[in-house]
Amino acid sequence: MQARIENPAYLLPESVKAINLLYKEAHSAGVEPATLELVHLRASQINGCSPCVDSGARNARKNGETEERLYAVAVWRETPYFTEAERAALALAEAATRLADRPDPVPDDIWAAAAAHYNEKQLAAIVLWIATTNFFNRINAATKQPAPQNWG
Known about the structure:
Blueprint: H1 8-11, H2 15-26, H3 33-47, H4 50-62, H5 67-72, H6 84-97, H7 108-115, H8 120-142
Helix pairs in contact: 2-8, 3-4, 3-6, 3-8, 6-7, 6-8
């Protein structure tokens, strides 16, 4: 696949400052980095964002995530590999990514499950990271950004 245009962040380099701030803030609230990686990967799978799925899985693996868990992210409900806190974050990621799939996009039970494991600041970080991931996914899908071919 060939991209329609170069990555917009390269074409509009000042946007990188804002993107870096979003990343920094989402990763500063005390949520386990592995949880944020899983949230990013799941939202990217739902949106079919090949560069984000590819880089998300590679980064998670580089940071110590097991292949077993990475292979199972798309079917996390049917596997024993995830903690209850991770499951709550993954459910929140799915609901907040699939906004148009139901009249109440993020039902109270999904929010309550996440709130049982994360404080307000951590919930804010997870929601911010889900939104940031969806932001990346939409840019990449609209411009047909391919997954990298060489990871030398």
